[in-house]
Design goal:
The complex is a heterodimer of chains A (about 325) and B (about 260). With about 325 residues, chain A is of the alpha/beta class. Chain A has eleven helices and 15 strands. Chain A has helices at about 35-40, 75-80, 105-110, 125-135, 140-155, 170-180, 200-215, 230-235, 250-260, 300-310, 325-335, and strands at about 5, 10-25, 45-60, 65, 90-95, 110-115, 190, 220-225, 235-240, 245-250, 265-270, 275-280, 280-285, 290-295, 315-320. In chain A, the strands form three sheets. A six-stranded mixed β-sheet of chain A has the order 6-7-8-4-9-10, with helices on both faces. Chain A has a five-stranded antiparallel β-sheet with strand order 12-13-14-11-15. In chain A, strands 1, 2, 3 and 5 form a four-stranded antiparallel β-sheet that branches. In chain A, helix 5 (about 140-155) packs antiparallel against helix 6 and helix 6 (about 170-180) packs parallel to helix 7. Chain B has one domain. The two termini of chain B are about 35 Å apart. The longest helix of chain B has 29 residues, at about 230-255. In chain B, a hairpin with a 2-residue loop joins strand 1 and strand 2. Helices cover about 75% and strands about 0% of the residues of chain B. Classes of the chains: A alpha/beta (about 325), B mainly alpha (about 260). Chains A and B meet through helix 2, helix 3, strand 6 and helix 4 of A and helix 1 and helix 5 of B.
Chain lengths: ~325, ~260
């Protein structure tokens, strides 16, 4: 087994990506008469750059959020990590293996869950899919029993273990998919929008399972999601990409700090005042409820605003809202 | 055969049983078809016991056998590959610890096992109804088994190749319909190749479909000259090797072509 060691404390590099790039080529669609036939014969190609230039390292036991707007290149990256897609250029190793070249060996150490599609067999009871997965990954009978027992406890599978997958609710199906992906104890778990479309309780169940998997089994998790509550609840580190490039790689706190997110100070003034109130270099807008909102940049302090405002107005009350991940992400996506 | 292969076989067997009503309906339609063909051919023969060296009783056995064979060689693979490529779930097949072609062969084996077991009770009935009789002789019996196995291999390889088209065009419904018609006709399911006029017979001999139906059944009833059998079986084996090679090449290119649908 090939593993690249790094660091004096023996932290292990699990995923190593450098300058990863994926370009899709399709024949140019010809419009008009016999368009389909002419498209087939055409040599002209259209290029789409799905992943431009992505580099990152992930160590054993990390739980990393891989974020970006729709079409940023997240799923394409995951497909390259799993070995299903071959990168156009760049360097990629997963536990020392080149995924697309050693796809079947790589497959043994990874689990994959896609929120939008299932690996379970539609026409058969859930248990049949799980049995097949046990067989495909050579899980010995006794170990399969133990592992299944654990999944049944953690994910509450018992009520629908014998139900055909097509009759499961989305939340049940997702729990079934998580069980299928973890049944053979993969070293890395790729999760692509695992909470999409789930209700609050189902989301919580999925999050708890992911946290537990990462904590107990030391499974490395790469989580792609649009649900920022998933991210704040689970991820110690996030990698943010857009247009196929890494925009940020680090902790959530650092992201908020480094993107200089704004804070809002909302004050209730003794006298209702005008639609716009200015104090020194600050300007506040009156909101619908009569309070005024001031926006502060990352470097601006609240005391300075209060001093300036207090000189000309009487402040009855105030609240400060700290920037959150959503504000930052919104600003980054908006460009 | 590893546990993984057995897992795939069992899966396909379960799916076939989950759809047993549809399998049994197809089998029922098959009986009706054979019955109608028998009526038509009896009327065509109009009292003659033999036409072009094909005796009427042998023809009836031929028709039963050919249609039974075609039923057993029905393969889910082209439709299976197509639907999984179209919906993008083919992704999961690509991240399994056993290769994709091996998974497909497991599915094929399980489906055939399921279909055969569902069809088994019909065999003694066909014998009793006089629609099947014993093979012409021991040589014919042996050659029939060999020819049937090779024919099965050819049918599976053709279905795999047809399925591979999905990696290029995504949509293969049109090709599949065309394939079904052409393969049935040139396998001789309704009219034995013996009665095909000159140029059509030449075309039928150039195509591989006769190995799925006509060739094994004609060997069984003794219509195919026994001196021809070794050469015919050898040709069949060559076809199988060529198709396997072609599949190997196509598969290697298909992997690079793969675009997994959806985000």
């Amino acid at each position: 087994m090939l593993v690249t060691a790094r660091g004096a404390l023996g932290s292990l590099l699990v995923i190593h990506a450098r300058g990863l790039r994926k370009v899709f080529r399709r024949p140019r669609r010809v419009e008009g008469r016999f368009g389909a036939l002419r498209t087939l014969l055409s040599r002209e190609q259209v290029e789409t750059v799905a992943v431009q230039d992505v580099s990152f390292d992930i160590e054993a036991g990390e739980l990393v959020g891989y974020l970006g707007p729709n079409g940023a290149g997240k799923s394409t990256t995951v497909k390259m990590l799993t070995g299903v897609l071959t990168p156009t250029s760049g360097e990629l190793t997963v536990r020392g293996l080149v995924p697309w070249r050693d796809r079947t060996s790589n497959a043994r150490s990874i689990g994959v869950v896609f929120g939008q599609r299932t690996q379970l067999w539609w026409d058969l009871p859930l248990i049949e899919s799980l049995r097949l997965i046990g067989a495909l990954y050579d899980v010995p009978q006794a170990e399969f029993g133990r592992s299944l027992g654990r999944m049944r406890d953690l994910l509450g599978l018992d009520p629908f273990l014998d139900t055909p997958v097509r009759q499961l609710s989305l939340g049940q199906r997702m729990r079934g998919d998580l069980a299928a992906a973890m049944l053979y104890h993969p070293i890395i778990l790729y999760l692509d929008e695992p909470t999409v479309g789930l209700d609050v309780l189902a989301k919580a169940a999925v999050r708890d399972f992911i946290a537990e998997t990462n904590r107990a089994g030391r499974t490395t998790v790469l989580l792609t999601t649009h649900d920022l509550d998933d991210v704040t609840a689970l991820c110690r580190r996030i990698i943010l990409i857009d247009h196929g490039r890494v925009l940020f790689d680090g902790t959530i706190d650092r992201l908020i700090a480094s993107y200089g997110a704004e804070r809002h100070v909302i004050v209730t003034l003794a006298e209702p005042g005008d639609a716009s109130v200015s104090a020194g270099s600050y300007a506040g807008q009156r909101m619908e409820d009569g309070r005024h909102r001031f926006t502060l940049g990352a470097q601006e302090g609240v005391p300075a605003l209060l001093a300036a405002l207090g000189a000309s107005h009487t402040i009855r009350d105030l609240t400060v809202t700290e920037p959150d991940l959503e504000d930052v992400i919104k600003r980054i996506y908006a460009g | 055969m590893s546990g993984a292969d057995r897992g795939m076989v069992r899966l396909a067997l379960r799916i076939t049983y989950a759809y047993r009503v549809s399998v049994l309906t197809t089998a029922g339609l098959l009986v009706v078809e054979v019955f109608l063909l028998r009526m038509i051919w009896t009327s065509v023969y109009g009292g003659q016991s033999s036409v072009d060296g094909f005796r009427l009783d042998a023809l009836i056995v031929y028709l039963t056998l050919v249609n039974l064979q075609m039923f057993l060689m029905t393969t889910p693979l082209a439709a299976h590959i197509h639907s999984r490529v179209r919906t993008g779930v083919v992704f999961f097949d690509f991240v399994r610890p056993i290769g994709y072609p091996r998974q497909m062969l497991g599915i094929q084996a399980g489906t055939t096992l399921g279909q055969a077991s569902l069809l088994l009770p019909a065999i003694p009935v066909a014998f009793l109804a006089g629609a099947i009789s014993a093979p012409a002789d021991a040589v014919a019996a042996l050659a029939y088994v060999v020819s049937l196995i090779l024919g099965y291999g050819i049918a599976v390889l053709l279905a795999l190749l047809l399925g591979m088209a999905a990696f290029w065009t995504i949509e293969i419904n049109g090709i599949t319909l065309f394939y079904r018609f052409v393969s049935q006709f040139f396998a001789g399911t309704m009219i034995p190749l013996t009665f095909f006029p000159g140029p059509l017979r030449t075309l039928a001999d150039l195509l591989p479909f006769r190995f799925l139906g006509y060739v094994p059944a004609a060997i069984y009833v003794g219509v195919l000259d026994q001196a021809e059998i070794p050469r015919t079986l050898a040709t069949q084996a060559v076809w199988m090797v060529v198709l396997a090679g072609l599949f190997g090449l196509t598969w290697r290119r298909a992997q690079r072509r793969l675009v997994v649908q959806g985000g």
